[in-house]
Design brief:
The protein is an alpha/beta fold and about 400 residues long. It is about 40% helix and about 10% strand. It has 16 helices and nine strands. It has helices at about 50-55, 75-85, 90-95, 95-110, 150-155, 165-175, 190-200, 205-215, 215-240, 255-265, 265-280, 295-300, 315-320, 340-355, 375-385, 390, and strands at about 115, 130-135, 140, 180-185, 245-250, 285, 305, 325-330, 360-365. The strands form two sheets. It has a seven-stranded parallel beta sheet. Strands 2-3 form a two-stranded antiparallel sheet. Helix 14 packs across helix 15. The longest helix is centred in the middle third of the chain and has 24 residues, at about 215-240.
């Protein structure tokens, strides 16, 4: 499973009270390899197009493009591999299989971003939360974490248990050889907590939402622990070769804006603050499914890029966010089932609405199962043919300020 993927009404306490402390210490993080670290003598023009767009650089010829879930079940090559290796856990936790699956769309379509084939729940066992994946139910956590005692039993992330992630990123960075950006990703604390508290997938989120009121200190302790672990995990990915990191708060859109401000945003900001200090060269993308009501709340999280889902009009999203932050998205995945000329028109519409700076072309959600590979190839072919000077010929790009 790839990632799905306003003032608070009460005073927010970013950490649990002193009577409720969980075990904390810094995990051992490997030093970044000199061959993977940006050289102080290299110019930004030597970096991948996607990284430059994420930073909002001027003078790019076109937007970079990649797709959420671009590696996976819609590809015949992946389906054949999955028949030989039916366990998703094996496919996402074996270095050879991770590398092969990640490279399948890179070889077929040559996107500007290559995202690690993994899952947002992959690091859970490394903090003491085992899980299984059921064909019918998806992820299953046999012992949901809902008590103070259970939170106390969580451990700092053991990165030795995630060596397959680090090794895969190192191999992929060499395989891609600078021709695209290598992306890593994580789940946001709230989204990971929904699985940990609910015990798996849910349509109602009643257990975790009720904890906001019935056991707020327990939930704060859990979210704080996850924020620390996720920060360590991001740094590990960067040190292993990831050049850009996407944070999936997939279920943040299930919260009213004022609740998201209290129970998700502070922990995302905690992660971003640490990454900006320790990995300042690495752009961060924040994606929330159903984020139309949250855009203004997402602006000051500190990320470089905000991903828009397909239900947000790109022009409206850009107007609300301003040009001071990059955007990603947001073609409706269903357009990949349309006639190719229709898909072409939609790509042009989205790119024009986003403007000639600070835009990463993507879908507004992951690639759907049964998506024709021909349409995916066309998406990337069209993107490579775009030129900002042609699309915006005779027009002056308007400097948008965010809506107050």
């Amino acid at each position: 499973m790839m990632p799905p993927t306003a003032t608070a009404t009460a005073v927010f306490l970013s950490a649990a009270p002193s009577s409720f402390s969980t075990r904390r210490w810094r995990s051992r993080l490997p030093a970044i390899s000199a061959s993977l670290s940006p050289s102080s003598s290299s110019s930004s023009s030597d970096e991948p197009l996607l990284v430059r767009a994420a930073r909002g650089e001027d003078g790019l010829q076109r937007p970079p493009a990649w797709m959420m879930r671009q590696a996976g079940r819609y590809m015949a090559e992946y389906q054949a591999l999955a028949r030989r290796h039916p366990s998703f856990r094996e496919r996402s936790e074996n270095t050879d299989l991770i590398v092969e699956i990640t490279l399948q769309p890179w070889r077929a379509f040559v996107p500007d971003g290559v995202i690690l084939f993994s899952d947002i729940l992959t690091p859970l066992p490394a903090i003491g939360v085992p899980f299984d994946i059921s064909d019918s139910k998806g992820p299953v956590i046999q012992l949901p974490v809902r008590s103070e005692e259970q939170v106390r039993e969580l451990v700092p992330i053991d990165l030795d248990m995630l060596q397959f992630v680090g090794e895969s990123l190192k191999i992929l960075r060499n395989e891609i050889d600078g021709k695209a950006a290598l992306l890593g990703f994580v789940g946001a604390p709230w989204t990971i907590a929904t699985y940990v508290v609910e015990g798996g997938m849910t349509n109602t989120y009643t257990n975790i939402k009720s904890m906001c009121h019935t056991a707020p200190d327990v939930l704060r302790g859990l979210l704080s622990h996850l924020a620390q672990a996720i920060s360590d995990y991001i740094i590990y990915q960067v040190n292993s070769g990831a050049q850009c990191i996407q944070i999936f708060d997939s279920w943040g859109g299930q919260l009213p804006p004022h609740v998201w401000e209290q129970w998700s945003k502070p922990y995302i900001k905690q992660i971003v603050s640490r990454i900006k200090k320790e990995c300042p060269h690495v752009p961060l993308v924040l994606y929330i499914n159903g984020n139309g009501g949250l855009l203004e709340h997402m602006k000051d999280t500190g990320v470089n890029v905000i991903g828009l889902d397909w239900t947000v009009d790109m022009a409206d999203g850009r107007s609300r966010l301003g040009n001071g932050i990059s955007v990603q998205g947001n073609v409706d995945p269903a357009f990949l089932f349309s006639p190719l000329p229709v898909l072409t028109d939609e790509i042009h519409r989205v790119v024009k609405a986003a403007g000639p700076k600070g835009h990463i072309l993507n879908l507004g959600h992951g690639v759907l199962q049964q998506t024709p590979e021909e349409a995916v190839a066309h998406f990337f072919d069209v993107t490579r043919s775009l030129r900002y000077d042609t699309l915006f010929q005779g027009s002056v790009a308007e400097e948008l300020q965010p809506v107050a």
